[in-house]
Design a protein that fits this description.
Elements lengths: L1 H11 L5 H6 L10 H5 L3 H25 L7 H24 L1 H6 L2 H22 L3 H5 L9
């Protein structure tokens, strides 16, 4: 994901630091212009790295738990369904979480990056093989008296 974000920064013409600073822009409300967001700063790099690591760990954990439960189509679930749901959730709450990011985010590139991450996660799960117990195990079992 970070590589795709940096590629976006370069392709968009804003520079490689633009997406990194944009991710952490909610913590630095004084930096609102494109010129301020496009240049290197240490503090946003540290904050963006922490945000990215936490989000990657949480999404990776979510994918690692859910994708084996659907062994027939992990690439479809990980590469299409989950990224669209995740992007829709972020679209609905981003104004409250990070207004600067909400104003400047390129949703097409963001969704495509999410799909790229999801396809890779689905391929990894598919390569690892299905776990029969997870595929047939209900999420909750009825009580037995």
């Amino acid at each position: 994901m970070a590589v795709l974000a940096v590629i976006y920064g370069i392709v968009s013409g804003h520079g490689m630091w633009y997406p990194i600073n944009l991710l952490s822009a909610g913590f630095f409300p004084a930096r609102t212009t494109i010129e301020q967001v496009a240049v290197f700063h240490w503090d946003p790099l540290i904050v963006a790295t922490i945000i990215h690591l936490l989000c990657s760990l949480l999404v990776g954990l979510l994918y690692g738990v859910t994708l084996p439960m659907f062994p027939r189509n992990p690439i479809l679930l990980g590469g299409v369904i989950a990224p669209i749901l995740w992007s829709g959730l972020l679209h609905s709450i981003l104004e409250a979480v990070d207004p600067v990011l909400n104003q400047r985010i390129d949703w097409l590139w963001f969704v495509l990056s999410q799909i790229g991450f999801g396809v890779v996660a689905g391929i990894v799960v598919f390569q690892a093989g299905a776990h029969p117990y997870l595929a047939v195990s209900p999420l909750c079992r009825p009580r037995r008296n």
